[in-house]
Amino acid sequence: MKHDVRKGHEIYYYMKGLCLLHQNKSDSAELFFRRELNTTIDWNNRQAAYDGLSQLYEQRQEKDSVIKYGELLCVAIDSSYQERIAITMMQMQKQYDYSSYQERAYASEKRLIREKNRKVVWSISLFALAVIAFFAYYALWLRFRQKRTLLEAHLSETRTKLFMQEKKRQEVMENLRALENYHHEALVVLEQKKEQLASQEKALNELKSESIEDKESIQQLRQEMEDLKEEILLKEGDMSELKKVISAKQEEQETLSAQMEKLRDNVRQNIDHSFTIAKIKVKASNGKTANEEDWDELQSLVVSIYPQFIDRLRQNVPMIKPFELQVCILMKLGFSFKEISALLPRSQGAITNIRKRLACKALNLEDCTADDADKWILSL
User: Cα 133 vs. chain centroid, distance in angstroms?
Assistant: First the structure.
């Protein structure tokens, strides 16, 4: 049997069958109702076909057929309702899936943006830290170079002073050698005069024994002897003065030698102190803590510069703790609070509290300021 309508328009058979049924053409109406029933599987069309057949058999008064198609109509209605519910559920599920997909997509996109922003922030932070580290290292290098330049200038000035002291010492030594030569010559002349005096006395004795009458010669010889004695006394006075000058020059030479040795010791000590403090300061600027070797060097340094510092500190604060002693040593050597905080390591607030606590113990006060603590430590 050929279909008279296009697919999807099967409801036409139901309308046509109802029209024929009202015209009392039951056979033709049954034909159209069954055509609709056989040409589609849609529950709406089957529901229409069962309804038409039910009305048809009701008009024919066939109760069994009416009951049968009535039940089929109920089944079709239930099936159609379930199908619509299933379709609705599928649509809702699809809509829910689409919404969930959108939410997941939005969350994923947001997470990607957040990750991207985090990477950008990390990149900028790392770059900024690298720049800060570079400038900090550069500033530290400039400061170290400046200190080195000042130290070299101080060394050059010290070498100049040493050279001048050495030159002056050489001049003193030359003068001393000249005085010694003069003293030697004076001794030689004195010996010669003594020999002449001895010879004159011998001649005088000979003249006394040979001729008592030659008084003029004796008087002349006596005068010559007196002159020689006066000359000897003058030479001895000159020799005494020369000895005093030589003694003064020797004392001056010894003083100059002691000053030069002390100056050399101070130069070596300042060089050692400067390099030790510079080394520790570089470690502090890099954020590193001081080790046992560093503390030994710092303690030796403060003892060499301020011999009574640690003893006075222990007298004022008998129960001082090791880290409190370290804070006092660093402050006495001129380290900043930031450097002290890095070397211990403790926060700057903790360093301030330690200073106040030590000052209160030493000064017997209930409350002290940081300035009081600094003045007390620097006064020791």
Answer: 9
Give the C-alpha separation, 168 to 256, whole Å: 9
In this prediction the pTM is 0.35
* Amino acid (one-letter) located at 326: Q
Q: For the segment 342-372, what is each residue's pLDDT rounded down to a tens digit?
A: 888 888 888 888 888 888 888 888 888 878 8
Name, in order, each residue with C-beta under 8 angstroms of 165's C-beta and a sequence gap of 6 or more: 256, 259, 260, 263
Give the CA distances from residue 251 to residues 168, 170, 195, 335, in Å, rounded to whole numbers and listed in that order. 14, 14, 35, 43
Spatial CB neighbours of 96, under 8 Å, sequence gap ≥ 6:
none
What is the rounded CA–CA span in Å between residue 210 and residue 223?
A: 20
Q: How far is it, in rounded angstroms, from Cα 331 to Cα 55?
A: 114
CB neighbours of residue 350 within 10 Å: 14
Q: Report how far residue 317's alpha carbon sits from residue 321's, in angstroms, rounded to the nearest whole number.
A: 9
Task: Give the number of C-alpha atoms closer than 13 A to the C-alpha of residue 344, restricted to the C-beta side.
Answer: 25
Q: What is the per-residue pLDDT across 245-284, written as a single tens digit (0 to 9) for each?
A: 777 777 877 776 666 566 555 544 555 566 788 888 888 8
- Please say whether the beta carbons of 360 and 376 come within 8 A: no
309: left (phi over 0), alpha (psi -120 to 50) or beta: alpha
